[in-house]
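2024-03-11 09:14:02 DEBUG pipeline.ingest accepted 1 chain
2024-03-11 09:14:02 DEBUG pipeline.ingest length=445
2024-03-11 09:14:03 DEBUG pipeline.predict start
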Amino acid sequence: MKKFIAIAVCKLAAFVGRLLGKGSSMPGKLALRICPDILSRLTLPERIVAVTGSNGKTSTVEMLVRCLTEAGQRVVWNKEGSNQIEGVTTMFLRACSLSGRVKCDTAVLESDEQYARHTFRYIRPTHFMILNLCRDQLTRNGHPEYVLERIAAAVGGDMKLILNADDPLVCSLAKLTRGEVVYFGVAKGVINDGFEPMYDDGRVCPECDGEMSFSEHTYGPFGHWSCHNCENKRPTPKYELTSLDLESGRMEINSSAEISSAIRTPFSVSNLLAAFAAASELGLDGATSAKALSGYALKSGRLRTWKNGDKNITFLTAKHENSVSYDQSFAAAVKRGGDVLVIVDAVSRKYFTGETSWLYDINFSLLASERIGRVYLAGAYVNDLAMRSELAGIPKEKTVLLDSLDSMSRAFEESSELYVITCFADRDKFLSRLPETAKEGQGVC
């Protein structure tokens, strides 16, 4: 009876939530209060894929689901991005019958890197993909090794692991499963944007604490690595990005599967590779996945463009307290050229903190490029941004401090090519101040 009531309450709460435009955690929270082990009482599909990591979970899941649905599969997934146990519970209960049978061929879950261990007490994924581990949300995550321990607690049994060969911390998880381990990665010389990370978290071997070295950083702090002290080195990927033209979006995987992608940043391409690898491990042929991914534009809303008369506005949603996310956004602006508006008005959507040390992990020196014109800084932390910019060598004469969010209208008026970079917490503050004459378009980045 508890199971039936929990499912019914969750379905009703989810329906009301959709009408009110609310998130997807509360229905699952209510169900778990009624029946704490509700997930273990469901009849789940034979294949469950979980995706976690510091960056790229939402995008990778979206692309994987695209591949599966294009192949004719029925897929259940947490499309709202609510990735802790409450959100996963909502996802499954919304899709199940009142008897508890989840009606789909495959379930794909975006899973929070710290909370996967809680969700996996009740459901065991058949496939577990770990994308990357890097500095992210210091307030709750501390450092990558801390998060690695949390993910390690979720790994076990016969689950198949799909791991990023370019990340030594992720690769250290391979020994924790009795199941098969496959890797994806970027071949040497394919991605080399010339932007070195501000820090070197890969200097210590996760196996022996010896000194590590990278013969090439492909993107962010990841690449081709090996340990000087032991035999630990980058494994050979089963799925490898073997060619890439970021300008056109054309790429090849394993020198055979050709994809013409609408997403054109190194990190996004790595996520696409991960989605292709997972789809292949679920039985899809390369041609089907390549067709599904070619020309596909992400619906997660992290890149949006507007035309305001003869002026262009591009909005790139970064992730606060995450330097890799900001570096990728800065690099995209440098590549195309124009002015940049950086907004930091809130540090976190979930945690009350004024901690801004993470700004010093971001490569602000990218904005000193001659391809960048004015650098507008705005938000409650405008002075922190100004100090960081000065220390990064951005000339004062091209730095513009805006005294309020409303003053960003100056950037809209002065700039013909403007890149706006901020986080989820500040996204709506920007959107509410867009010129009424701006018309949204379809951008590629």
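2024-03-11 09:14:41 DEBUG pipeline.report Residues 303-441 form a domain with the Protein-Tyrosine Phosphatase; Chain A fold (CATH 3.90.190.20).
2024-03-11 09:14:41 DEBUG pipeline.predict end
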